[in-house]
Amino acid sequence: MKKIIGILLLLTQFSCSTPPKPEGLILKVQYQPEKTYRISTIRGTETVITYSGQPIAMRKLKSMNIKNPTISKVKTKNDTELETGKSIADQSFPVRLTYKKTMSLDGKNEIPEGAVVLGEISGNQQPTFNSVTSGTLNSEQKAQLLQTVQTTFEQFKFPEQRLKIGDQFSTDRPMEMAMEGSTIEIKVTTTYKLLSIKNNMAQFELNQSYQMTPKIMNNSFSGKGNGKGQLSYDVANSLITDYSIKTEIEMNKKLDYYEFDLKTINEFSQTTQIAKQ
């Protein structure tokens, strides 16, 4: 009898000291110290601007060599390496992003190969970048690159909540765009839905919407946008290995003697792999 009571006590102690693991997945990107991550990013934009209006305005645009419609295409691919250093007492560690290979559709590489963006990671947060090292970029170009890199990494900062299959959450990102003497306030809402978890890989569906509001409310502007995409999340390594999204945006702006319609398609994709140590 004493043996049975003793076993029951042991089982009770074990069950109390080892609580069950909480169910659900938390989508959180966490880079580890002393690792090398290989990142490949592709960006593509196709924009069509169509003008219409009074003959005098159309002749003026033609005299300025503005084509109607005006069509532009931009596509770039960047291969980078994110290297993390040793963790110190406060759990922070340095991070170094190096541009290994850069390519563009027109052959003009805005980011030179060998450019380095430096920063640090504190705790479980996303990297904070603070400087750019390059022999060819001027101070303004360095500031633009620093902002682009920081924005790219910050888009992978999500609210910490546990998700089960079929659950979803949304994030809002505010932006501003200057247009013909006014400013357009844009709110980008992205919804992430967990579709499946298999072999330690979680699959998400992405839906995106754009809400555009001009600061000058005179009915001269209208705009809308939406997008769809997907991402794959490596649960064991707390890493998004594949991310892609395609968005379509339409805008109309009325001026005194003419108006223009803008349609743009943006594509963004990124893959990340941990380099073999």
Structure characterization notes:
The protein has about 280 residues and is mainly β. It has a single domain, classed as Lipovitellin-phosvitin complex, beta-sheet shell regions (Roll), CATH 2.30.230. It is about 15% helix and about 55% strand. It is built from 3 helices and 13 strands, in the order H-E-E-H-E-E-E-E-H-E-E-E-E-E-E-E. The chain has an 11-stranded antiparallel beta sheet. Strands 1-7 form a two-stranded antiparallel sheet. The N terminus is likely disordered.
Please identify the top-level CATH class.
Mainly Beta
Structural class: mainly beta
Overall morphology: globular
Look up the CATH topology. Answer: Lipovitellin-phosvitin complex, beta-sheet shell regions
Approximate strand percentage: over 45%
**Biggest beta-sheet profile:** 11 strands, antiparallel
Tally of DSSP helical segments: 3
* CATH architecture label name: Roll
Order of helices and strands: HEEHEEEEHEEEEEEE
**Tally of individual domains:** 1
Q: Give, in spatial order, the strands making up the sheet with the most strands.
A: 6-5-4-3-2-13-12-11-10-9-8
| Backbone CA Rg | 25 Å
Number of strand segments: 13
Mean pLDDT: 89
Distance between the termini: 56 Å
Helical content, roughly?
10-25%
Give start-end ranges of low-pLDDT stretches.
1-21
List the keywords.
eleven-stranded antiparallel sheet; 15% helix; 277 residues; mainly beta; 3 helices; single chain; Lipovitellin-phosvitin complex, beta-sheet shell regions; two-stranded antiparallel sheet
